[in-house]
Amino acid sequence: MFKFQKEVAHIFQRVGSRIAVSPDLSVLLHLALLELAMLPQDVRSHKTARVSEPFCETEGSQVPARRQKNRDFPAIARRRRSGSAPERRVNCVLVGDGAVGKSSLIVSYTTNGYPSEYVPTAFDNFTVVVVVDGKPVRLQLCDTAGQKWGLLDGSVNDELELLRPLCYRNADVFLLCYSVVRPCSFTNLTDKWLPEILQHCPGAPLVLVGTQLDLREDVQVLIQLAQKQQRPVSTEEGQRLAQELGAAAFAECSALTQKNLKDTFDSAILASFQQAESVTVQQQRMTLLRKTPDKIKNLSETWWRKIGCLVGEQSCQTK
User: Could you point out which of 89, 227, 239, 287 has its C-alpha 20 to 30 Å from the C-alpha of 156?
Assistant: First the structure.
């Protein structure tokens, strides 16, 4: 920009020297335009650099760039810039009792909205693209059924109970959800959900999540719990259970107010990263242990040959 201003100043100095010859203002303007046209292309086309927008943001979208709903995999989310690093994939599965707010967490996180009514979930998948340390991460959220659907004859439909473990197969991390205003959902974590996860996907990291945090201070909810001689699940109880389960993280959040919502899913992503890194380190260590005997054997043979050569040279010199 300084170079451009300097060139323009020189132009007006040269044009000003011609005022005595041609005092007509229009002639002076024409001369100035001709001088500007003769400037180098890089000076005339100088523009201020702009930071490009995130590639996951669609035109006209009202969703912030930090999270973008991508349920149908739009084409813009599948674009790859030449030379860009491949995105990592994290498969996050939400488990817990029905009506604890698992679907609301996903909807609020991906769309900044909140469902107006409760609709029982069979199975549903959402995909969002987030940026972690400047690199794209495709976060797949699997919403599982937490309830048994009763049939007209009063029997219990166990099909969902049989199908739900299929979502566990490729899980990288689990969000173990309970409602802070439903103590029974907190108890079912150890009675039902944890044994099911350990049976089908042992070793996967867990993030303990207390949902519906906005209802913990709600007067009507407190009255209803008091009538049942119950009380909300405290933060200390959740932290204690997370420590007993060996969970990677513990969080309490609200889908309605979005308090701690982003931190909850960030904890899930980081837990999956730490698990993957620990597995990689363990594999490298096992590979090193397998190769170590061969390396020692090769080094031993090499050193014995060198020692033999030295002994042979000394014996020859003695003779």
Answer: 227
